[in-house]
Every structure is written in C-alpha cells, then in structure tokens.
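Figure 6 in text form: structure in, sequence out.
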C-alpha cells in the first residue's frame, strides 16, 4: 500500500491517481511558496549569491567560456583541428608535458598534434603562396628568397602559440591576483566559508581569473575532485613557477578555516593579503631594475638604427638599380615590425603581478558607450566608430594616392602641373620640363636597369606628390586612432570617475563604519556620511543611496544595486561593488559586524592603493622615456630623415637630368657620360615617404602597447585609449615635421642647383 493509498482507492483503482496528483500538486505549491519567501528574505539575486556547492558558478563557467574563450581563441582551435586532419605530425616527446600545461592554462581545445600540424602547414603555405604571387607581380627573385626566409622564421613562433596564449593568460590573470585575495579575505572576515568566498571573488573579478575560479567549481561538479579545497590546490599548482606568493596567500586563507581562535583567524587572513602585496612590490622592483637593457635594445633596434639607416637608402638605390621601393617596404613594413613586436612581447611576458583595472564596458548596460551616441528628439541613436574611421581614412588615402591616379588616367602620360620659374602655375606636357621650379607629379625618364625599362616614365618625384603622400600616412593613423579613441573615450571617463571615487572611498568607508559602530542603522548612516562629505565624489555616491532610501522607499540593498536607480549604476567599479556587497552581507549579522567589516575593507583598499602607487613610481623613469620616444623623438627623427631623403633625391635627379642634357647637346666625349652611368633611378620620395610613414605608424602602435603593458599590465581599455591618442598626435607631429622639412630642403636643393650650369 502506498503512502497516499486508501483502502477504497485500492479496491476501486480509479480514484487513486487523481488523489495522488492533487496531493503532490499541493505539496509543490506550498514548497514553492516558502522557497520564494526564503529567497526574498535572504535577498538572493542571480549569481550574486551562489550556492555553497558552487553549482551556480559551475554553470556560469560553461557560458562564460563560450563568451570569452571561444570568441578570442576559436579561430586558432579550428585551424589546428583542420591542420591535423590534413597532415598529422607527432610532437617532440620531451615537450609534451610543457604543451599540456600551456593548453590547460589557456583553456584551449586543441591537441598537441594539431598545434604541430598548424605550425608546419602555415609556413609552407606562406612560403609557396607568397613567393608565387609576388614573383608574378614584381618579377623579382628577392621575394622568393624573402618568403622562404619568412616561412622558415615563423615555424618556431607558430609552434609556441600555446605558450604565448598561456603567457598572455598568466599576465592578465596575475594582474588580478591582488584583487582576488582582497575579495576572498574581505568575504571570509565575516563569513568563514571558502566556497562562498571563492564564488564571491569569481563574481567580482574580470576575466580571465574569474574563469579560472569558476573552473575550480566546475572540476568539483564534474567529479574530477572531491572537494573545493582539493580542486583549488590543484589549480594553485599551475602558478608554482610563476607566483608562489599567490599560492602562499591562498594557503594562509585555507589555514584560517582550522583556527578556533577568532583573533588568530583574522590575523592569518590579514597576513595573506600582506604576503601578496609585499611579494608584488618585490617582484616589480626586480622587474624595473632589469627592464632598462631590454627597453634600450628595443629602442635602438626598432627605432633609431632603422630610421638612421633610411638616410643611406636613397644613395644605395641610386647606385644599385636592382633595389626598388617595394623591397624596402617588405623589410621595413613587414619583417622589421614583426621582429620588434616579438621583442616587445618578450619584455611584457616577464612582467610580474600588478594591480589591474577592469573595463566598465564589459558590463552589458555600458557597452553602448563604445559607440557615438547622439539624440534626435527622444530617440537615442548609436553609431559605430568603425564607420567614421573607415570613411575618414578612405577619403584621406584616396587623396594621398591622387598623383598615381592622375597619372594613370591622364590622356597624356607626360602631363603635369608645375610651378613656373617665372612665377605662377602652368600645365606642361613635357617630362623634366626645364621651366619647372616645382612639380606636382614630377615623372622622369627612366634610365632602366641592365637595359630594362630605359626611357619609360617613372615617378612621381615632384614635391607636390611628396606632400600629398603624407595624407596616406595620416589616413592610416587617423582611421585607427579615431576608432580606438572614440570607442574608449566615454568608457574611460566613466572609469576615471569610478577611480576617483575609489581613491576617496577608503576614508568614506571609515566614516560609514564608525557611524554603524555607533549604533546607527545603515539607512540613517548613509545620509549622515553624505552630509559630512558633501561636494566630493564619495559624498555624491552616498547621497544617491540616501535619496533612493528616503524618496523611493528602497531597502539599502536596492538603493545600491538596483539596475535602474541604484547608486552603482553611475559608478561601475568592482571594488566599490564588492565593498557594498560586504556591507549588505555583514549587516545581516548586526551593525557591529558590519562596521568592523567596512573598516577592514577601507584598510585593505588603502594598502592596495599604496602598493600600486609604489609600483608606478618604480616604472616612472622608464615609462617617461618611452612616452617621449612615442610623442616626439620617433616622429621627429623620421620626419627629418624624410626631408633629407627628398633633398638628396631631388639633387641626384636634377644632376642626372642636367648630365643627360649635356650629353645630348653634343658636349665633349666623356664630359657627362661617365658620371651619368653612375646614377640609376632613385626611389621616388612619394613611395619612400609612404614606406616610412607606415613604419612610423607601426612603431608607435608597438611602443604604445609596450608602454601600456609595462605601466598598467593587461589593461585593454587603457591600451585602446592610449593608442587613439598616440596614433593621432604622434603621427600628426611626424607629418608636420616631414612636410616642413621637405619644403625647406627642396627649396635648398633648388637654390644649390641654380649655380650648376647646364
């Protein structure tokens, strides 16, 4: 007989299912009703209150990996999978363990065989494809050799992609370790529960460390480990070679769970935060001491020597006719920047733990601030900065290439617009018009190379074309700079406002904690602190909370966290959010505990801020030097080199033309023929400036990434904003200097050549 069976139902057999169904429905209804009341009483909202067994966090790991890892690394995973199907290559047995560790750290879904197959197939495709295509276009054996070397050179870096991704992951994760320990310690001061503390940290941290912590729960849920402590210890071992302070800090946190004495428990928690802060400062001190030599090497090999080497290139090209502008482009705009980029990545890979900042636009409700926002009536319209940057860049590049377009589509290939020696503009249909003081296009008669191309028009050599070529560089830099600047400007203003609040927040929390310690309810304490801090950012924050409570009738939790009216909506800071979450949690245990929790949080924030300021002080000398290179030295040196090159090219071109005039006028045998044979077709300043301009844009891009990486760590928002500022301002400096120097040196060349008789 069943639990709900009755004798009558057992005999009849027809009323039994209906009766059971009715009773079960009533039980479920009552259970659901009380569950809802418990949830409301505990104020459980989504992932803000994960369960102790980590089930909610574990589910977050699946969706989080799809959002973060899949979008960032799926292309590489797919390429490795396809490469393995085409050509399966066995890896070096001695490196299998290293690859497995790197793949695990970077959360990659690849096999070691796929990594090796990808690293072999891509260089083969680059070497063969690049050689065939460029030889068909330029008919030069140089590119066959160039792409063979490139294919061989990239094989090793492609094999090491898992290590690069793992190092990038470590760098981003290590930049959040101080905050991770801060969140765990802050939570465990009032609730000694490791599972809830790790869940609290994973909620407030940004990726990728938050993903690692969610993976800790995931490994328990999938049965890989029996307890959260066992899973956490296994994860911490992956940092054994890189951040032993992080491991020691977590072990102190774990040890606090076994302390019976409350004072001793709190002391161990405080010690764990001190351990990672002291370790961070010490490692950053050694990093700063060892950084000067690599940065100097980067500056010399990537900036000074290549740009100074450009000075002799016009002479070399003039006397070695086989060297063309596209050979210089292959070396300066492709091979050299790639080498400098890898050197820069090696410098950044050794950066120790820091104190990282998050991107507020990672929050869904703030992503719109990456766009251009304007209002038409009551309607809000968003425009992607990508469209603006593409339009501006395309227009400038089109105007910059107008000399080539005019020459291509002009009916007469000899057509040119000149500044006449007697003054005024004039149209000519002569190449190398003797009456021209300056040319717009300035095409010349080619001398050829080894009998090839003799008599064909080459150029443009004119000062007008050289000046217009600056717009090509400006278009590239401005399009990228506008995109980065517009997409980050609004967001970084939000973060700066939040950081200003964070700087004041420690003292504000002290005041709030003292008010709560005096026995005032939180609802009243917020208003009191807001009055005493009136006019400050912290005062405005507390005033918003107080107004939400008094005017809108919200609870303290709603006044802070409400998605529409909450105070955090205007200050999206994880540090502030976690501090308020601690207040919300600890206030359930009484105002005294809440007061002590806030005072401790305030002390932690001050300690972290002090260490962060010391780290910036350690880096200040190197950072200021690199910033001066980006903002002025590199653009100035490159601009002067372009002016010198234009002058040398003009003088050599004019001398060659005058020597040909002497020879064709029937001068004495050998009067000009011997010298004429020495001069080849020099690189037109138009192409030379485009090559150098692209190189300047690339170097500024790389140096900005290095500077930001050294100073801020893996802070992508700061990187985008600095790229936007430096690409626009620094390249504009280069263009102004190059344009002025080209004009002055061209006038100097003309005056020098006036004294030479034809």
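Output sequence:
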């Amino acid at each position: 007989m069943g639990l709900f069976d009755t004798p009558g139902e057992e005999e009849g057999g027809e009323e039994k299912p209906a009766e059971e169904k009715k009773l079960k429905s009533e039980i479920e209804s009552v259970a659901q009703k009380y569950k809802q009341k418990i949830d409301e009483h505990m104020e459980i909202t989504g992932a803000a209150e994960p369960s102790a067994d980590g089930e909610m966090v574990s589910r977050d790991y699946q969706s989080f990996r799809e959002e973060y890892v899949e979008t960032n690394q799926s292309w590489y995973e797919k390429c490795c999978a396809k490469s393995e199907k085409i050509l399966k290559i066995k890896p070096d047995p001695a490196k299998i363990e290293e690859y497995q560790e790197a793949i695990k750290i970077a959360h990659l879904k690849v096999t070691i065989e796929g990594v090796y197959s990808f690293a072999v197939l891509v260089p083969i495709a680059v070497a063969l494809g690049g050689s065939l295509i460029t030889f068909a276009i330029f008919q030069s054996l140089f590119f066959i050799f160039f792409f063979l070397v490139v294919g061989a050179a990239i094989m090793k870096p492609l094999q090491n992609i898992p290590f690069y991704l793992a190092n990038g992951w470590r760098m981003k994760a290590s930049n959040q370790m101080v905050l991770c320990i801060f969140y765990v310690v802050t939570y465990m001061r009032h609730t000694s529960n490791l599972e809830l503390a790790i869940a609290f940290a994973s909620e407030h941290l940004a990726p990728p460390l938050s993903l690692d912590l969610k993976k800790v729960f995931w490994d328990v849920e999938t049965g890989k480990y029996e307890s959260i402590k066992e899973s956490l210890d296994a994860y911490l071992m992956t940092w054994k070679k890189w951040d032993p302070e992080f491991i020691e800090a977590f072990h102190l946190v774990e040890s606090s769970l076994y302390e019976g004495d409350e004072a001793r428990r709190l002391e161990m928690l405080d010690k764990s935060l001190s351990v990672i802060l002291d370790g961070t400062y010490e490692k950053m001190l050694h990093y700063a001491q060892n950084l000067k030599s690599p940065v100097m090497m980067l500056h010399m090999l990537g900036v000074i020597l290549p740009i100074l080497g450009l000075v002799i290139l016009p002479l070399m090209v003039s006397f070695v006719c086989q060297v063309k502008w596209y050979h210089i482009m292959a070396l300066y705009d492709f091979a050299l920047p790639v080498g400098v980029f890898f050197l820069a990545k090696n410098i950044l890979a050794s950066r120790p733990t820091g104190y990282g900042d998050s991107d507020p636009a990672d929050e869904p409700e703030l992503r719109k601030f990456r766009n251009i926002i304007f209002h038409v009536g009551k309607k809000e319209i968003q425009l992607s900065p990508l469209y603006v940057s593409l339009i501006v860049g395309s227009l400038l590049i089109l105007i910059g290439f107008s000399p080539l377009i005019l020459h291509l589509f002009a009916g007469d290939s000899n057509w040119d617009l000149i500044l006449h020696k007697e003054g005024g503009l004039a149209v000519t249909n002569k190449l190398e018009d003797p009456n021209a003081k300056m040319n717009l296009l300035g095409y010349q008669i080619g001398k050829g190379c080894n009998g090839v191309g003799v008599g064909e028009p080459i150029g443009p050599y004119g000062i007008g074309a050289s000046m217009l070529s600056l717009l090509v560089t400006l278009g590239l830099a401005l399009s990228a700079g506008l995109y980065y600047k517009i997409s980050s400007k609004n967001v970084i203003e939000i973060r700066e406002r939040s950081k200003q609040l964070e700087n004041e927040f420690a003292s504000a929390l002290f005041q709030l904690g003292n008010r709560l310690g005096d026995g005032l309810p939180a609802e009243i304490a917020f208003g009191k602190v807001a009055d005493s801090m009136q006019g400050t950012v912290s005062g405005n924050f507390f005033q918003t909370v107080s107004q939400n409570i008094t005017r809108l009738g919200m609870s303290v939790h709603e006044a802070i966290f409400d998605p529409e009216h909450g105070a955090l909506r205007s200050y999206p800071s994880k540090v502030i959010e976690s501090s308020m979450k601690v207040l919300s949690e600890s206030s359930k245990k009484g105002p005294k505990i809440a007061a002590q929790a806030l005072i401790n949080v305030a002390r932690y924030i001050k300690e972290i801020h002090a260490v962060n300021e010391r780290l910036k002080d350690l880096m200040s000398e190197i950072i200021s030097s690199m910033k001066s290179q980006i903002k002025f030295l590199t653009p100035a040196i490159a601009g002067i080199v372009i002016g010198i090159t234009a002058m040398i090219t003009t003088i050599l071109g004019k001398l060659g033309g005058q020597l040909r005039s002497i020879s064709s006028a029937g001068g004495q045998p050998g009067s000009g023929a011997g010298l004429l044979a020495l001069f080849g077709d020099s690189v037109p300043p138009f192409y030379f400036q485009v090559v150098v301009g692209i190189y300047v844009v690339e170097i500024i891009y790389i140096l900005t990434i290095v500077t930001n990486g050294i100073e801020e760590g893996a802070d992508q928002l700061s990187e985008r904003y600095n790229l936007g500022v430096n690409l626009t301002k620094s390249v504009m400096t280069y263009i102004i200097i190059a344009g002025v120097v080209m004009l002055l040196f061209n006038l100097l060349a003309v005056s020098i050549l006036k004294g030479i008789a034809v």
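Caption detail: The chain is about 70% helix and 5% strand.
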